[in-house]
Amino acid sequence: MASEHHIADSHEVIRVVGARENNLKGVSVDIPKRRLSVFTGVSGSGKSSLVFATIANESQRLINETYPTFVQQFMGQLNRPDVDALENVSPAIIVDQERMGSNARSTVGTATDAHAMLRLLFSRIGRPHVGSPQAFSFNIPSVSGAGAVTMEKGGKKVKERRSFEITGGMCSRCEGLGEVSDIDLDELYDKTKSLADGAIQVPGYNADGWMVRGFTESGFVDPAKPIQDYSEKELADFLYKEPTKVKIQNINMTYEGLVPKVTKSMLQKDRDALQPHVRAFVDRAVKFMPCPDCGGTRLNDGARSSKINGTSIADAAAMQISDLAAWLDTVDDPAVAPLMVGLRQTIASFVDVGLGYLSLDRASGTLSGGEAQRTKMIRHLGSALTDITYVFDEPTAGLHPHDIQRMNDLLQQLRDKGNTVLVVEHKPEVIEIADHIVDLGPGAGRAGGEVQYEGDVAGLRASGTLTGRHLDDRARLKESTRAAKGALEIRGATQHNLKDVDVDIPLGILTVVTGVAGSGKSSLIHGNVPGFDDVVVVDQSPIKGNRRSSPATYTGILDTIRSAFAKANGVKPALFSANSEGACPACRGLGVIITNLGFTQSVETLCELCEGSGFSDEVLEYTLDGKNIAEVLAMSAAEASTFFTKGPAHTTLVRMIDVGLGYLTLGQALNTLSGGERQRLKLAISMAKKGAIYVLDEPTTGLHLADVENMLGMLDRLVDAGNSVIVIEHHQAVMAHADWIIDIGPGAGHDGGTIVFEGTPADLVAGADTLTAKHLREYVGASPSS
Fold first, then answer.
1. Phi, psi at residue 62, to the nearest 5°?
2. Which residues of the chain have a pLDDT value below 50?
3. Is the peptide bond before 442 cis (omega within 30 degrees of 0)?
4. Cα(701)–Cα(676) distance, rounded to whole angstroms?
5. Where is the ABC transporter domain (predicted)?
6. Are 719 and 509 in contact (CB under 8 A)?
7. What is the pTM (predicted TM-score) of this model?
């Protein structure tokens, strides 16, 4: 007789009851286990709040609690999510789009442990033998030392001589960074001019200004003599002299050579914190070159001398990963057989996720968000673990339509091994393969946070929700395209995998640069275009900001708001800053009181004095048109644009609405924004320039199908205002809307790096034989002309 249904099989769904994280309004859902569930909805509707901040966060917190308290104190403290109940949660592994650290010492190899396995391999069978795995690490310098150690033995003090020696692999000249920097003196000054004629070309060094008078009146150089006529001593004093006390017009001052002066004031500062014109100067003046001693490999002579089958570890790390996989197959030594199994599996996983075009020595900070996410996936693909919850944040970000099918296969493989796969996604290709869909909305921010639909794809189509209505959206090719008004000429581009590329990027129109992931799009555009004048680059690098930063502070609107409040009430502007004089004395402007409880989670409680506003009572009594400062910061951008009807604040707010961020509240913490929201906030600020060249890196990342149309309208408005727009993009709707397409390929890595098509979208669809042409044809429902 068949056995009764076992009680252990009754936990087949993850049950969420009353989730209220961020903007969620008491959401309750049942998510089937061992299935692929996709969470959809407009940007800001609450998808990440439900999936990451509630389910994944609680799973990780519960796992952390299983460790001894001694271990817990060294782990990140996670707060309990605001939810009534969360049942049947399984261990969660988060694979998000956070960029990998841009630490100069982190490479693709070190971030995935592939390099650690390579170091072990070379330390065991490399010939000649040079040492342990440390001898192949570019982060460990070679050091040695000796000295006397005094110890007590049997009540007597005994001296013993000790010595130690560590053999590392770090190149001593570049300290394992692979490159050295050099200042281009021709960018600092014009040698044909004298100092009095304005020879110094550094921003802020005007011929009649104090910075230059420090040189002209110091007595070390002749201000009327052209720099090219200086004697050796004069030139050395002008450029490199150590700080020296001098008297100028009876004022004691310190004279210092131009190079150390500029190095301290500009080159040693955080590049992102510099003003745009100073940053442009720094980018021109400082040349980074491969280290001449190690050839850019980061490794010293010893590490490079040990070889396996004629290949050194530097050669192996520089290979394209698909080529490295072939080389590993030639290494056949029974002494390292178990190691080779793990190494081959890791390298094969790179190829499986479509990253075979990378090399292990590629700096991890140069990976795009999509590449970083797929790199993180590599750890989990070969895992024998099952009944795990895998959580993905837009895994198709940065993927060409050609690569999306491969990503879908990987998601289904993870599910078919018996895992629960939760995916936050906008692409219809991924929504189509879902076993279960949870659609959130109806709007964004306060207008979202409710479940609109739960069920399968067919039900979503018929549901009438915003996602259901737009699921089958297909852009049409434009009837007519704009004519270019000039061109940016790029000649002989060879960055990364580019093969001596010559291309003219048209100006005054919307140009889309496309091609499969790794074909060379970013290398071509980011590697060459920013060198031209009036270029505004809006990329996906995260906005620097903490819980005290908000859209109001980042866009500069807060300064205008504070001035308006100060003027209306006859007090000083500093009162209206929660980070300054107006802060609540109890919570110091945070709005919450944080109690640190050691090894358990920190507790955040609403500040009773200011009730979460962050401002003191005195400040909240001042009003502007009937609203106090806390009420104004609680407004969404859309609401605030009707409150501030003119001036720079109104202009910025309208631009925020233009880029689809009308739902963000002015006081929301920046660290709660998604990657797509951050990029669009940057774009809103950058749109102030007229006649500029805008470079946008995948602006549709994080955008709902319904919002893509708004984004296209905004790009059109930018072009119609007299700007040139260059978009690196995979979304077919943006390609179809372009005036000009540059397609790079035909493949990725060394199979790419050439221009395979230049022309209008209509020409691409009609006659081109590239992967992009194939997918765009399918998208717009056209057939190739014979």
1. -65, -35
2. 1, 786
3. yes
4. 5
5. 8-467, 475-771
6. yes
7. 0.84
